[in-house]
Amino acid sequence: MSTSPLLSLGMRAMFANQAALQTIGQNIANANTAGYSRQEVVLTTPEGQFTGAGYFGKGVNVQTVTRSHNEFLTREAAAAKSQAFADTTMQSQLAQLEKLFPTGADGLGQSANDFLNALVDVASRPSDPSARQVVLGKAQALASRFQSAGQQLADLQAGVVSDMNADVKQVNELARQIAAANDQIARASGNSHTPNDLLDKRDQLISQLSQYVQVSTVPNARDGTMGVFIGGGQVLVLGGQAQQLSVTPDPYDGARAQLSISDTSGTRALDDSTLTGGSLTALLRYQNTHLQDARNLLGQMATAVATRVNEQQSLGLDLKAQAGGPLFTIADPAVRPASTNRGDATVSATVTDGALVPALSFTVTPDPTGTPDSYQIAVRPGGQPTIMSNDQIKAAYGISLSTAGTMQPGDSFLLEPVANAAASFKRSLDDPAGLAAASPIIATTDVNNKGTATVDALYAVNDRFDKSKQPATVQFGTVNPDNSINYTITLSDNTSVSGTWKAGGKIGNDPAAGVDLGFELSLNGVPREGDKIALQVSDQVVSTNNGNAKAFVAMQSEPFLGKQLQADGKLSRGQTVNEAYASAIADIGSRVQGADYLAQVSTTVASSAEQTRSSQAGVNLDEEAAKLMQFQQGYQAAAKMLQAAQSLFDQLLSVVGR
């Protein structure tokens, strides 16, 4: 019998065990390499050789080297990682945003309180220049606080755009590398064996890409390449070709950014609602929701404070007996045309009622019915379009729109009533004498009154106050069972209005009772039937006239912010400055808490998903050590087989030589 079959068996066995040892060594060397998948030699038995004594084996073949890989687990790990990066990015951004809403002495609410509290001293000493100067100082501090918050919001916005550009740069580089890996894999797969290391490299690149934006992958069984898609089916990588993402200006506001993609057909914006996962998506969502909401919340406060203070200032008299000029100035509502507009229309907006202006942004488009002075508006983002006349817009949102030029179908405008208010908030009054502390209307109790009522405060509250109908007389009537007392106000034109007064109530401005003469009279003590109070216009300022200063002080408890038009046509209560700021803090705080929780959960899920993937695809050093011993013994046994075959061959030679 020839010794060559034995030699062949030994050689095959040595090669097979050597291949296994080499693969085990590769596994051990890459045990800590990110993205490496455990490799394994596939051994097969060739068909046996028939002889008269039966079939004799031909040894072993090394068929190929495979990698331990589960496509489902790989996708799940990448998706979980993408969500974790989105949540941690959002958490980080919201933590920065929360710093804009400090509590205590550093808060906007406290600054507004300080300003209104300073007016208490003016109410006590209306003509005191030092008290008036303190008010202007507190007004400047409030303006500076609003401006600082507005600037910080602008800085956060610039930071978001910078981070988006950095992320897009990484995405484009990873897409290029994935496309290059696809090319290499397609060329290497032509010999019917899989290039395991290249496949691992591509999987790792896709995993890194998932940090920035969640992707879906579709393998091409024909050439081994992998298609990579984002945004609900938008091609990013197909075969050896990669598309390019870019950060482009928002069509309405160049300070904000949107994502666009470029291919052979040109550059087009991506719909951010189709993007999921990854830090890039989180930055985009943060910009379009949380950052914009914060800008609007601060702007709503700034608008309400400025308009209400200026309104009350205009209703009083300064030390020169003139109507007070504006104490604060803010920018008008911003109306920005889309860059794609075809018409020549320009739209402008003015605030008509600061208490109604919402912390919202709107998209304004032409009324499809063509009705004059009417628009189609939708809350941005995602609101349903509603056709509203300008009067309806004023009643609902405290804003008046006007259009010059012609809107074309498809034209749109971004209406931001309050987005720029905080950054533009300024003190416009520099002269302490210009502070309108005096009221244009004064009251005198009749010397024959029997009750204990005295005038606590009297001031104008809105533009319904008509000086031409003064002087007037308030006369009290019968007492009701609930201890309220009826009164009648007789004006100079002999018209009259009636109402009821209870302790703590107001006379002259009681919308619930249908009384609104544009002034408020509050009393100390209790009037009796027949008592009278005379009202008259005051065109001269006396040192004791502090009526309008008291109106300023009353703003601390006045809900002049965030009112809403209800279904019954009435206005909601609204909020005071303190309530509004506390509500804003609570709103941002709840978002931060939610982001903290989501970041913790998604990070845990991502870690678990990666561990699950690694448990199947990763390298277990104990297992590899055991295999190392196994195949080392196999190699040694194969060597013994060759040694035995050599010995037999030598013996045959010695026999033949004799």
Automatic annotation (TrEMBL):
Domain of life (superkingdom): Bacteria
Start and end residues of each Flagellar hook-associated protein FlgK helical domain: 94-328
Domain Flagellar basal body rod protein N-terminal: 10-36
InterPro entries, sorted: Flag_bb_rod_N (IPR001444), Flg_bb/hook_C_dom (IPR010930), FlgK (IPR002371), FlgK_helical (IPR053927)
Keyword match Secreted: yes
Family from the record: Belongs to the flagella basal body rod proteins family.
Keywords: Bacterial flagellum, Cell projection, Cilium, Coiled coil, Flagellum, Secreted
A Gene Ontology BP annotation from the UniProt entry: bacterial-type flagellum assembly
GO molecular function terms attached to this record: structural molecule activity
UniProt protein name: Flagellar hook-associated protein 1
Assigned GO CC terms: bacterial-type flagellum hook; extracellular region
Pfam families: Flg_bb_rod (PF00460), Flg_bbr_C (PF06429), FlgK_D1 (PF22638)
The species this protein was found in: Roseateles chitinivorans
Localization of this protein: Bacterial flagellum; Secreted
